[in-house]
Design brief:
With 127 residues, the protein is α+β, with helices and mostly antiparallel strands. The protein is built from 3 helices and 7 strands, in the order βαβββααβββ. The protein is globular, with a radius of gyration of 14 Å.
């Protein structure tokens, strides 16, 4: 996989994640996952803009795919719905469960979340 020119790192996975990062990378590479969400105050991807090129990287720093940001929205956690869950490659119940806890506390329904939508440009992963 070649790094995209002027691309930003978009990392999924961490040591001790029990394979979650790899599962998410595979879902992105197969087209099943085209969005991700986090608390709006999370600085990790705060600087992203529509049109940004992203290098999807694993926990080892290896580029696994190239993406482009297609939309970014801020919305309350309580407004998550089936349509967003499908874009995240999961069910609404699982999405709410997996994103309901951050920085040692429960996310409140009115708490603002950042949702990043992206499109796969190139992948070297065999699914």
């Amino acid at each position: 996989m070649v790094k995209a020119q002027n691309a930003k790192k978009f990392k999924f996975g961490w040591y001790g994640d029990g394979g979650l990062g790899e599962k998410l990378i595979e879902a992105i590479a197969s087209g099943r996952k085209t969005a991700t969400s986090c608390p709006a105050y999370d600085p990790e991807d705060a600087g992203l803009k529509v049109g940004d090129k992203l290098d999807l990287t694993d926990k080892h720093g290896k580029v696994r795919a190239n993406l482009v940001v297609t939309n970014i929205e801020l919305r309350p956690f309580g407004s998550f719905d089936d349509k967003l869950a499908a874009r995240e490659g999961t069910t609404l119940e699982e999405l709410k469960r997996s994103t309901s806890f951050a920085n040692g506390r429960e996310i409140r329904p009115e708490e603002e979340m950042r949702v990043i939508y992206f499109e796969l440009v190139q992948s070297k992963i065999r699914i």
